Amino acid sequence: MRPSKPIGRRSVLRSGLAAALGAALPLPLRQARAGDWLRLEPRPGTARFFGDGGPQTGVWGYNGAVPGPEVRVRQGDRLRVLVENQLPQETTVHWHGLRIPHAMDGVPDLTQPAIKPGEAFRYEFQVPDAGTFWYHPHVRSSEQQGRGLYGVLVVEEPEPPAVDRDVIWVIDDWRLTEQSAISETFDHPHDLSHDGRLGNVATLNGLDSAAFAVRAGERLRLRIVNTANARIFALRFEGHRPLVIALDGQPATPHEPEDGRLVVPPAGRVDVILDMQGEPGGRYPVMDEFYPRRSYRYLDLVYDQAAPLRNSPLDAAVALAPNPIAEPNLAEAQRHDIVLAGGAMGGMRSAILDGQTMEIGELAGRGKVWALNGIAAHGHVMEPLFTFRLGRTQVLSIRNETAFPHPMHLHGHSFRLLTRNGNPVAGNPWLDTVLLAAEDRVEVAFVADNPGDWLFHCHVLEHMQAGMSAVVRVA
Prior knowledge:
By secondary structure, this protein is mainly beta. It has four helices and 36 strands. A hairpin with a 2-residue loop joins strand 23 (350-353) and strand 24 (356-359).
C-alpha cells in the first residue's frame, strides 16, 4: 500500500436513516458522586468500521472501544480516572488542551513514569475550563493513536447555549489493508519526512463516514475533534452555514469560517452551531477539501422525511462565556523565536541530536528529519528550549521554513493567536494547537502561569517522532 493512497469509499450503509449509525459513540463516563473514580482500560479490541455487516478490524481502544468512552464532567469538577494498562506496551494518558498540574499531563519520563503492561496510574485534577477536549497516549504516539487510542472529554458550561442536540463528531482516517487490517507501516520513511501517516478510509465516530442523520429545522451544537495522526480536514457543508463558537475548547467570537470551510488540524477542535435548513428528505454533501487535487465527499447530511422541527432558526444566544484564562500583557512580554526546519524538500543540512551536530544523512538514518531551532528531539526529556518566568507574558514568533504544514501544540497552556504572516488575526482566538502552512509565520501570546517542563511539538505524530518536539520550562 502506498502511503499516499487517496481515501476510498467502501461504505455498507445503503439507505435512509441507516446513516444514524454515523452518530454512534460509547456511553458517556460520568462521576455519579464527588470522589468517584472512573476506569479506563487501554486494551486490544475489534471494530467494524463499515457497520455490522462489514469485516472486523483489530484495534487498540480505551475500554476496547474506538473512540474511547466520552468522559463528561462539569466545569470546576475534580476528575479522578484510574487507568489500567492492558496493552502489550507501556502507555500514558495525556489530557489534551486542559490546563492542569504538570504531574497529571501524561508525558512519560517528563511528568510521570510510563504505565507498564498490567500496571495502573491514577489521574486526579480539577477541570478549570469548559469546552471540548480529548485524551490520548504519549508513548509511541504514532502507533498507539494510529491503532485507535483516543477519546473525547466534554466539560460542560454552567449555562450552555440552547440547542436541540449536542453532538460529537470524532473525525479520523485509517490506513487499512485490503483485508481491513490496520497497516503496520508505522515508521514508514515517507510518512516521517512528508505529510505523515495519511489513511485511505475516513471515519466518523469510528464508522465509515458515509452519512449523518438530521431533521429539518433542528439546531445542533457540533463538537468536531480531529484525532487523525496527520490528516488535516477542511470541511465544507454544502447548503449550510456553520457558525464557529469555540476553538480548541475555548470560546470564540461567533463567526462563519473563512471561505466557508472548517479547517481542523490534527488535535484541533471546533465547536459550531449548525441550523439544519435543508429540505426534508434531502441529502447535502460535506466535502473535505484540504489537500489540492485530493478532495472527496466526507459524508452526506441525510434529512428525515418528517416536517421541520421549526420553520426558522432558533432565536437564542450562542456566544459562550469566557474561561478563566489570564490575558497576556504584551507591553511586558518576553519574546522568543522558533524556527521549524527539515523534512523532504526542506533544505535542512544538519541538526543537533543528543548534543551532537549531525549531517542530514546520519540524522535520517536514525529516523530524525525535523528540528526546532536546529535541535532534533529524541524522547521527551531534554534541556529546555526556553525558560519562561512564572507569571510573565510570553510571545512566541514561530516560523515554518519547511515544505509541509505543521499543527504546533503547547502543553499546559492556551495561547492567543495574534498575527499570521504579519497580519492581525481577527478576534485573537485562544488555541492550544496552531496550524502553520508551509512558509507561514505566526505570533502567539500567553501568560506562563503553569509551572513545570512542558512539551511543545508538532501534532503530526510522525513529525514529532522524527524530531519536531521540544521542552519549555515555566519557573
